[in-house]
């Protein structure tokens, strides 16, 4: 068939011509790395870290999730930072700080000779530029998902656009010299300056913020666009700079900032590779294609250790609790809440369903936080006493809707189903009828629980910084439908403690608050669980941080 | 022929319109929403309401849908609530990966499936035939995630021959132009990058292609067995045609009709199978994107991506219909 043959030849000719033409146009962008093969960048100069998710954007003021923070912590620095392996703060861009006697005015002395990665100088004006930027956020920037940490820490803005927003705790920032700033607060708070270690309050280059129109976030209906500063041009003072983001292969590459003011990063390049599946992260580590990863499943810890990998446990800085909603009149009775606490065998639960280093919780903050009280009322496992308390309260036939989340694993609750099963069985043993309500975490669970639809539920919190308010204030600082109680005495005690300028006195006040809260028992504290990182055995100086603040600039691999 | 194609393409409009209404309503009627995903433990009723206001989710459903239609008419499919990235950009970034993976799976399924099915039929009742039949039964029943786990465990973790996941070694400084990594490697003459991308396609390609492979083996075998007993084959033999001509032009070509239908159907299934495979192999593509969009209730991404998959499904069926005509002049459309 000559026709077919001719057609085939024609097709081949066209394919060949197109290929030649395309390969003529396309040229490799690859820089000459000094070697012929693609593996020229030596693995010892590159650290590959397996992340569970993509960083959302690169403007820390708009960030609130761990995966975004992990990347931004290497690019940016704040006035203070946490000590490696601890939640204590230490100097970063500020070398020292001092409060006024009333705790309302804080004077920061800034480090000299620091430059942003765009070459502009870091100084007092830059600090005030950043604070004023956050304080003057308007429009979409006041949305609680965009400026989450500003709202958590300082409340509102210069001009609040929603009646739900409180008055801002921040009043003003003034430069008192080229390298000193004074920050004035409306009232003293223990959150300050501890919260300044959060990446959300990192210092950014005023020049770059203006050049790339960092505040031009546009929201119209369900479209939401971030400016190029947040997507391409992050400019901080940190030991690394953004090199590239490959959205097709889901990687973010950072390179060493050679002009960094402090000790230069030991590894030239860090690649954060997104591997959402936990098992895939583990296998990549075992295959040697990544050097470390976060959020190790508790079930994988032993097998990874057995294979010679490092398991780095973070000091537990979180809390899992069984929330109690006092909107249910039965649960408004203290004896019933006490019965729930006595009915749950927390010791057995923590030993059997949590990682080995997990601790049974006595109160709603981990022991590292200032204000932790050793002498709170304890509710040991005692089913007989639980039954007796229920009977005394006239609630022997108690029936509860127990909400638990599916399709989620949190650092404080690696496997919600197992926790639910154990707690549920314990409660049934003392005669409480349980109606289980399983909801998908993002599909109804969070909204139902936060709006008070559950009788009891599982929830928790990972601390952001070392201050008791970050735990107690978050849960019990005001009326919340999640707990359904109104206890002005507790609200006032927390607010009063938060406003004590002296750290030691504040800690004492919080101890009293903790005793008060545990006596009132608005929820049953269950566990503090240590999330783990895994790394190849040759990775050194990756210090697990309780607040996920690992500094990759300190890390090196054996042989580099 | 042209009229047939145009008619089929016009049918896409009501299909997409109906689907978009269903999808839009379904996503919003499910409990929860992007606010919970954005806030996590910070969720309070006031904050959820504030975010719903920001994203226009407090408006009546028909108002939201009308706004959506207006934008879609201008080819604006919205932005991801998680990252603010436009849906079209997400598709441009992620879809090439899924196409590469689907092609890899198809090459595996067709390249192995048709010859295996053919030879199993030619040697009916032999060990090869029995192995093919049993093997295809196992292939259909084995869960993708289990197969993926086994493949990764042996070939990536234990033997270290192939990478366990991803699309390309991140240590390779590859240039990406089209986001088809194999093609990019060839175009830029970074052959190591192209080879590495191919290596990353082998295990997920096999995992994704195993079910279609098993089905293609069975269908090919059955079709060939049907055809070899047809009168026209006997006539061709009687005419004295050579065996190779009979096999190629009479047996295989006629047997191909049901096989092509099957491949067409499987191609659609490959797209949905890619969701699981991409997840297990941490292979960045549209499937991984759908999974995280479902988790995060990212409405715009889900609407855009699912509509795209629907368009593809219709187009694949159209191509299959047209292929019938090429293979069998009796059903050629006019």
From TrEMBL, chain A:
Q: Which Gene3D superfamilies match?
A: Dipeptide-binding Protein, Domain 1, Dipeptide-binding Protein, Domain 3, Periplasmic binding protein-like II
Where does the record locate the signal sequence feature?
1-28
Which biological process terms from the Gene Ontology are attached to this UniProt entry? peptide transport
What InterPro entries would the database entry show? Peptide/Ni-bd (IPR030678), SBP_5 (IPR039424), SBP_5_dom (IPR000914)
CDD domains tied to this protein: PBP2_DppA_like
Print the keywords alphabetically: Signal, Transport
Molecular function, one GO term: peptide transmembrane transporter activity
**What single Pfam family name could you report for this chain, choosing any that match?**
SBP_bac_5
**Location of the Solute-binding protein family domain:** 88-477
Q: Which domain of life is it from?
A: Bacteria
* Gene Ontology CC entries for this record: ATP-binding cassette (ABC) transporter complex; periplasmic space
**Stated family:** Belongs to the bacterial solute-binding protein 5 family.
Mind telling me what this protein is named? Dipeptide-binding ABC transporter, periplasmic substrate-binding component
Q: State the organism of origin.
A: uncultured Mycobacteriales bacterium
Q: What lineage is this protein's organism placed in?
A: Bacteria, Bacillati, Actinomycetota, Actinomycetes, Mycobacteriales
